[in-house]
UniProtKB/TrEMBL annotation:
Keywords: Cell membrane, Membrane, Transmembrane, Transmembrane helix. One of its GO terms (cellular component) is plasma membrane. It comes from Haloarcula marismortui ATCC 33800. It is a multi-pass membrane protein. This is Flippase.
Amino acid sequence: MVNIARSGLKLFFARISKSLVEFLAIIIFSRELGASPLGTYYPFLALLGILAIPTDFGISSAIEKRISEGSDESEYLGTAIVLKVPLLIFISISILVAHQYVIQYLGADLTISLIATLFASQAAKLSMTALRGERRVGETAIVEVLRPLGWLGMGYALYLNGYGVYALVYGYLFGSVLMLVVGWWKVSVSVAKPTFEHARSLLDYGRYSVVSAVGGYFYSWMDVAMLSVFVSISAGAVITRGDIGAYENAWRLSLVVMLLSQSIATALFPQVSKWNAEGAMTKIEEIIPTALLPALLFVIPAFAGTAVLSKDLLRILFSPEFTVAWLVLIILAGEKILQAVHVVLGRSLQAIDRPDLAAYATVVSVAVNLILNLVLIYQFGIVGAAIATTVSFAINTALHARYLNRFLDIDFPTREAVWSTVAATVMGISVYGVHSAVQIVTIIDLFAVILFGAAVYTAVVLIYRPIREETQRLIGPVIQNIS
């Protein structure tokens, strides 16, 4: 567990850096351009996510799984590349044929940019999954920072030269190219001649993994995609592009609290996969509750703080225009508690070679998500989209837990979660008291209140000895190793 903790923390701190760069870019572009251009850029990313599903067809997840098993790595990598190229070409031709619909959906002519970004992002993604399969998770962290750096640097330079929303898209493309170049430079597995046997193995795993990818897309982008549909069919009385920009900014702000749990789950996958291949199921049963605890200790207080500071976060970080999404931010912050559990359980279920069950859970949640989005967006606008996402993800998490329990006996850290909730409640009341007494005007005021809340939560949560001892057990060896 110490090695996983070390890799997870390394990835966590790198992703903090990545998120800081991303947020700096979002803050700058939100203040300079406003919400409407972001209402075109975010649907561009949503469409990119749609196209990535048939383009990848679960191959990236399959290559991570097969390389992590430790045999025929070069053959699997060569086969994966050969499988992906025809898919990329086919999808690109389809985009060109449907370019008029693409323009209508996005509100700008970004067809060629979409194709170029699809190629670059898929190549970068394959290099990242290959590195994770080599159990070099920590090294992927540095590479992942390159995309937001490129987006910020190139995007801002192009914005200064009057490119508007195109500056955002070209910056993202530039960052993706940087990521793929450095990613493939780091991959140590050579590329060998592809074979039908290895292709069959990848596709057998990928056919289920692609369903999970659909679920991941629905979770990340279906709400924005559906909101964009309402705009493109002239439903402006319900949704505007400015609303989409505000919604996605709230979404991205809520994602900050997922950095730790995502880092742990990413580091967990190759190790659980290896233990599963060795038949060491007891080790897997012991490590999953240990992985869940730090994730929960992070997201529960984040929800309490967001419930108090939602409007201030959006107003000060972006601009008053974005406070229309204050309730959305609270709902999504609560949903992240579910995601913190799901991301660990989901990766564990796939690591024990049961992507089929993960796919079944995904199909159910995707259907619920789609239906609820259609109904609730029409009734409640962007708040409806947030509710739809939360309900569907609750179902997805429950199904993953049920399926994983068929193979593993997992003790959920219930007592620790309850105490974290108590500590978060104390923190929330304290922050509300400060918020009522002190007017939050600047970003320094906001961060001071956040730090105050974090201090209160940490002091209360560490009173509980099991949490204190587990924290020392996990972090102590890592700190000693670093020092």
